[in-house]
Amino acid sequence: MAPRVGVVQFPGSNCELDALEAVRLLGGEAEILWHGDDTVNGVDAVIVPGGFAHGDYLRPGAIARFSPAMTAVADFAKSGGPVVGICNGFQVLTEAGLLPGALQKNRGLKFLCTTVELRVDSTDSVLTTEASEGDVLRVPINHFEGNYTCSPETLAELQGNEQIVLRYVTNPNGSMDDIAGICNAERNVVGLMPHPERAVSHLLGSEDGAPLLRSLLLSASAAV
């Protein structure tokens, strides 16, 4: 049985269909989870996608964190369910307290839309089990507030617990310690700024995002 992945849709999301199609292309089932519903509808994994949830009018993710769906996502995560936040979804997860730290404006105050190289620094997360440590992946970015920051104490914890799962080979946005993606201490919640769902086919210019989303599907399959 194929794992079911729910993709949360907020007003202003713009990558939910990309995530749905990527999951389906890789053999999973995918469905939309409406932000106003307080359920994850029995799915086996959750993706919080990119976009501009609620217009990001306060700050990215700050309003979305109060959506009923995010209460359900938090409960799902606490029960061990795999959750991945991509770009704006990463911002939402930090605002919701599911991941530490915060995302601030890029160094140089410039919007970035390009392809970057990511190094896999840990395979111990629901997003990286199908990759190999040291792999370099070419994956697109598309953000203005992707500059990861946290306290020195939090950074030391992330480093000591190997919770930094992806780093930029060449840092595009000023992110602390070249961080592109982190996981929680339990390894089942991951946030990353790059868009693996836009790199799952050679028709999109790269298939390097496929191992990441395959990892999520494998993690979800364990719950089926």
Distance N to C terminus: 7 Å
What best-fitting shape do the alpha-carbon axes yield?
A: globular
| The top level CATH class name | Alpha Beta
| Strand order across the largest sheet | 2-1-3-4-11-10-9-6-7
Biggest sheet record: 9 strands, mixed
Structural class: alpha/beta
Give the total of domains.
1
Estimate what percentage of residues fall within beta strands.
Answer: 25-35%
Q: CATH H level: which superfamily?
A: Class I glutamine amidotransferase (GATase) domain
**Shape-level CATH architecture:** 3-Layer(aba) Sandwich
* Alpha plus pi helix count: 5
Number of strands: 11
- The helix/strand order is EHEEHEHEEEEHEEEH
Low-confidence segments, ≥5 residues, pLDDT <50? Answer: none
Instruction: Report the average pLDDT across residues.
Output: 96
Description:
With 224 residues, the protein is α/β, with parallel strands linked by helices. The chain has a single domain (4-221), classed as 3-Layer(aba) Sandwich (Rossmann fold). 22% of the residues lie in helices and 25% in strands. The chain has 5 helices and 11 strands, in the order E-H-E-E-H-E-H-E-E-E-E-H-E-E-E-H. It has helices at 16-25, 68-78, 88-95, 152-160, 210-221; strands spanning 4-9, 29-34, 45-48, 83-86, 102-104, 112-120, 136-143, 147-149, 164-168, 179-183, 189-192. The strands form 2 sheets. The protein has a 9-stranded mixed β-sheet, with helices on both faces. The protein has a two-stranded antiparallel sheet with strand order 5-8. The termini are close together.
